[in-house]
Amino acid sequence: MARKDYIVVAKKSRLRQKERSKAIKIQFQYIKINLSHIQVIISLGATLSGLSKRQYKMLLVVTQVYRQEFWLYENKK
């Protein structure tokens, strides 16, 4: 679903600021949902020890980048 929403926006030749902002917000929501699902799984007793070092590092990076980019989006920077 996230890819479908992205492609609809990416194929437009001109994008108004309001449309761009809405599309970015939707993508942030998809990431938030995915990260919250991971948190729920961890709270139910799953461990991250099954992840490779690379996967664990990528999870940490995605979480941090999401947090930073969402702050920029909220503060219109």
What is the subunit organization of this protein?
single chain
Proportion of beta-strand residues: under 5%
* Cα end-to-end separation: 27 Å
Globally, the shape reads: elongated
Number of strands: 0
| Uncertain regions spanning at least 5 consecutive residues | none
Report on the architecture of this protein.
This protein has one domain. The chain is built from three helices and no strands. It has helices spanning 2-10, 17-43, 53-74. It is elongated, with a radius of gyration of 15 Å. The relative contact order is 0.10.
Which characteristics define this entry?
77 residues; mainly alpha; elongated
List the helices and strands and how they pair.
Elements: H1 2-10, H2 17-43, H3 53-74
Summarize the structure.
The protein is mainly α and 77 residues long.
